[in-house]
What does this fold into?
Amino acid sequence: MSSRTSASSQPGILKEQLNQMKRSLALVLTLASCFALSAVAQTPAAAGTAPAAGPAKVAVIAFQVAVAQTNEGQRNFADLQKKYDPRREQLKKLSDDVDAMTKQLQADEAKLTPAEQQSRANALDIKKKQLDRDAQDASNDFQQEMQDIYNGLASKVYDVLQSYAELHGFTLVLDVSQQQNPVLYANNSTNITKEIIDAYNVKSGIPAPPAQPAGATQAPKPAAPRQAAPRPAPAAH
It folds into this structure.
């Protein structure tokens, strides 16, 4: 039967749905940065004065990763995970119910009349649709709250970045955390991701979160700058 065949494929699909909320942080962190980091040092010069000449001083930062790796970001993410634990448990129970109903329908198929098979299949379909709907609602709510948390924290981390850049004389700060960025190569000495994380932690006064048990979901650590991409050789004449 088509209904039973569709139901029998549910464990893999359901597992993916239950894991979707845990992957939401990765999705959120890959969103385009809300801030024009390249304008960090573009403070208007005083009227009637020309900007001081000098060599450009450039830094790079994995801004989205920096936000997530602050003590405050890790704490807020952990709190959000705990907030959604009850909903995960509800989804897990609903998933187990669907799995049990699917197996029972398969086991009883030979003993059921066509009408009974259809009734069981309809009940299974209703339960599956409820699971799909609840899982999607929970995922959407989780992602929205995660985005709100990120946006609120990112504005404060940006303030620290701006102060740090001005203090250390950087004329340009490039964000290398986005999938599409113009940086082909950056020396590790120009990466100020850790410095911004440390500076923000000092300013916020929030202690580092306790060590996570093995297998716990954590925010990604700052990534090293990418190495230079190979350039094509000039055409021979």
